[in-house]
Amino acid sequence: MTDTHIRFRIIPAEDILTIIPLLNKLGSEGVSEELLIERTLEMAQQNYECVGIYDGEKLMGACGMWFQTRHYAGRSLEVDHVIIDEAYRSKGIGNKLMEFVYDYAEKKTCNWVELNTYVSNFPSHKFYYNQGFVAKGYHFVKPL
Questions:
Q1: How far apart are CA 102 and CA 132, in angstroms?
Q2: Can you give the residue ranges of every domain in the chain?
């Protein structure tokens, strides 16, 4: 792999299922592949887009992006399920991905980028702090 082969591009909604193998690697606890496919197709019909990270034509990473308007921030992009294949990690691709995301958010007239990360994922915390993110609160969930 050489850096010159790495490309970022928006995955068209009709090709969104190409991210399923990557999502399976995230370990969506208790979510069958069938349900993962159903949910991903539904997401593609909402205010969701996904950027693919390609080495040549090989999809080796992805980053979901939700677009919404928040009363506290205005138009914003929420980063979701960032994953880069293990063989490509620690090569600066994450930094380039985030540059792509920031540029894309500006083109979509967003005022801010936000994200959630698991409290146990310490490497991601360091990465996002280095990107200039600050922790503004806690993300709580309650299963129904």
A1: 12
A2: 3-130
Tell me how far apart the alpha carbons of residues 35 and 95 are, in angstroms, rounded to a whole number: 31
* 73 CB-side CA count, 13 A: 15
| 15/141 Cα distance (integer angstroms) | 30
The predicted-structure confidence for 38-66, as pLDDT tens digits, reads as follows: 999 999 999 999 999 999 999 999 999 99
Q: What is the pTM of this model?
A: 0.90
For residue 129, give both structure tokens.
């702090």
3-130 fold:
Aminopeptidase (3.40.630)
Give the largest CA-CA distance in the chain. Answer: 46
- Say which residues have a Cβ less than 8 Å from residue 109's Cβ, sequence separation at least 6: 75
